[in-house]
Structures are given as C-alpha cells and as structure tokens.
Write a structure and sequence with these properties.
Jelly Rolls; four-stranded antiparallel sheet; 4 helices; 8 strands; globular; cNMP-bd_dom; RmlC-like_jellyroll; Cyclic nucleotide-binding domain-containing protein; cNMP-bd_dom_sf
C-alpha cells in the first residue's frame, strides 16, 4: 500500500458528504481491463477490496506490470491533469470492489469548491509522491550498488 490515508479521510469533514454523494460502488470480476495507456482518463476509483495491476505497454511483448494496488488505494490520477490521458493500463488481478468517480464532475467540483479542490490535489500529490518513492526504492534494489535497495533512503 502506498498511501495509508483514505480519500474520504483526506477531505475536510464538511466536504466528505459531497464526495460520498458522487461515489458509485462497483464490483469488477477478475481480468477486467479498466483502462489502456493513452486512453481518455474520465474516471478514477478507490479500491475497497481486491487488487489492480498497473501495467505499461512494451512493444512486441505483453504489458509489463509496474505496480499492484490494493485496499483504500487511489486508482488513477491522470484524470486530474491535462490532457487527461492514462499513462498506464490497469487490470483487476482478482475480483475487486471499489467506488468509482466521474472525473469531469469531480474536476468541476474541485474548481467550484477551493477547499475540496485543495484537499483533492493534496491527496493526489501525496499518493504520487509515495508511489514515486516506492518506484525509486525498487529501481535501486534492481540496479543500484549492492545493498542500496534495502535501505529507506530519501532520494
């Protein structure tokens, strides 16, 4: 898990209800393709149970899994930044229960409600930073000098 804080917990208490009202529960079977790299990023999810693999296109080969997300994690942030295109693909590893959000509606809400918008951008930025740190640690474990991958370093 990359970020311990749930999206709803990251919101000011008076904004949680607005966001919860826009959440749509979804149940997804195993091997459901949620989005493709380069596709239009018009939704995002908070995973409640199960796992989703993020993958990247590799010419001439199967997509390479770069990370697996689980409970209470944010799936998708490309919806928040123009040009609103997915940078990776995503597929369920097994059955997944999640809450889904319509990205254009949430973007409009972020614009019209600066308090909620600031909290949303802060939550997404924390998620991105946590995942970047995890990626750097994995890269060091694979390619760095022997012994450099096991230490928790601030890169």
């Amino acid at each position: 898990m990359t970020t311990a804080k749930d999206l709803f917990d990251a919101m000011p208490p008076d904004r949680r209800r607005r966001l919860r009202d826009l959440a749509r529960p979804v149940s997804l079977p195993r091997a459901t393709r949620l989005f493709e790299e380069g596709g239009r990023a018009d939704r995002f999810w908070i995973i409640r149970s199960g796992q989703v693999a993020l993958d990247q296109h590799v010419p001439g080969r199967r997509p390479a899994v770069v990370e697996t997300l689980g409970r209470d994690e944010l799936l998708g942030w490309s919806w928040l930044f123009p040009p609103y295109l997915w940078h990776l693909g995503a597929e369920t590893v097994g059955p997944v229960d999640a809450v889904e959000f319509d990205a254009p509606i949430i973007r409009d809400l972020c614009e019209s409600d600066p308090v909620l918008g600031r909290a949303m951008y802060h939550y997404v930025a924390e998620t991105v930073a946590d995942r970047l740190h995890g990626t750097r640690t994995r890269l060091l474990a694979l390619y760095g000098p022997q012994g450099s991958g096991g230490e928790d370093q601030d890169l």
